[in-house]
Amino acid sequence: MARPATAAAPKAPPSKHLMALAVVAILGIVLVADFLWASSSSSSPSSPGGAAIWSSRLDLPARPAAPVPSSAKKKTKEKVSIGSMDINATFADLPAPELEWEEMAEAPVPRLDGAAMQIKNLLYVFAGYGTINHVHSHVDIYNFSDNTWGGRFDMPKEMAHSHLGMVTDGRYIYVVTGQYGPQCRGPTARNFVLDTATKEWHDLPPLPVPRYAPATQLWRSRLHVMGGSKEDRHEPGLEHWSLAVKDGKALESEWRSEIPIPRGGPHRACVVANDKLLVIGGQEGDFMAKPGSPIFKCVRRSEVVYSNVYVLDDGMKWKELPPMPKPDSHIEFAWVNVNNSLIIAGGTTEKHPITKKMVLVGEVFRFNLNTLVHTVPCSFI
Fold first, then answer.
1. Can you give the residue ranges of the Rhodanese domain (predicted)?
2. Domains in the chain and their CATH numbers?
3. Per-residue pLDDT tens over the stretch 163-183
4. How confident is the model at residue 12, as a pLDDT?
């Protein structure tokens, strides 16, 4: 049954300059999210067919960045104090040129572990934590043409609030599984699709079992969902399912089992390029609910962030490609395919060895799909 929502912001022809800054907007969401999580964990016990359809009109260097002399010091932005909040250091320790970044309009609300999809000149930003005890249940829309936010509308009441799997075909946005509620509550297997032309929601068949932040992509007319974290929020899942879909509708009533992913876990970039399915980065482990806690209070558990890159080819076999320059997670909505090169902005890497807090990635990575070579075209700091 359709669920109507309020109208989105009016569409306008995309601006070349503003569309080129789309990656910055996505990065801002990731960074704000990680800042909030880091600050909340300090006061609690020891927590883009593609993910987005970005404009390809970006002027990227054709050659790897020139190396920086070995005497150059590691660039960091140390922890700063903002009132009672402490923000983690951002590390850019790989050689890369520094580019000038332009700040975009501030988002209406802060978000952690939300989701975002771009369709033409509009960026749809979904759900996420506002604080560890509050989750958003609405969608905000950013317009790249005039650098404004507007067109807010509600999500279905049964839809997950964070750790969503999500992908778009250019009109319909498929929303899969995720965590329902604040803190470290359990996941839901419910799935939905949004028709961005009418702002109506429709149901999709539920997953066989719920997952947190699974890799999600459309490939060969099927909606693929794989990996993520299992119901305890910590154990990585290896399962891989697919569902035939067309124009926002499921063509089957049940999900089909596919070849399992070699390494499970959440928060990975999932890309279709050259008719191949790629899964990049991610992590194993996550915060878990404290046993017996009535509010499912999040407590820290061990995490392993990794740099692995896998591809599923015509033979339906997973193969491992050269790894990323450093381990990188929380990048499911921080990538774009430009001229057959994957650009991945920011993310989180291995935790600080002393404070045990997450460390934000200060680089932009480029993976050339023709040569299978990783480079670092620029950094944020």
1. 306-327
2. 16-69+77-107+117-379 (2.120.10.80)
3. 999 999 999 999 999 999 999
4. 40
